[in-house]
Design brief:
Strands 1-2 form a two-stranded antiparallel ribbon. It has 72 residues and is mainly alpha-helical. The longest helix is centred in the middle third of the chain and has 20 residues. Strand 1 and strand 2 form a beta hairpin. It has one domain. Helix content is 60%, strand content 8%. Helix 1 runs antiparallel to helix 2. The chain has three helices and two strands, in the order ααββα.
Length: 72
């Protein structure tokens, strides 16, 4: 959706530079925020309202370890 917003903003530049630029910048900001959080590990904890979040260095290795721990 962010890429579509960037595309719409770029295509709208010929009609209105200000609004087209605003749409393109909003799409770029949205894309950056989404990309930054792509490997976030969220753990829901009982008794806590918000989940714990961490950013593992190697998400595939962590996933393999979690699957092995849950299988035991």
């Amino acid at each position: 959706m962010s890429v579509a917003l960037i595309g719409f903003g770029l295509l709208s530049l010929d009609r209105s530079v200000l609004l087209g630029g605003a749409f393109a910048v909003a799409g770029a900001v949205s894309l950056a925020l989404t990309y930054r959080k792509r490997y976030t590990l969220r753990v829901q904890v009982t008794g806590r309202t918000d989940p714990l979040r961490c950013f593992p260095a190697d998400p595939q290795a962590l996933l393999a370890e979690l699957e092995q721990a849950l299988a035991d």
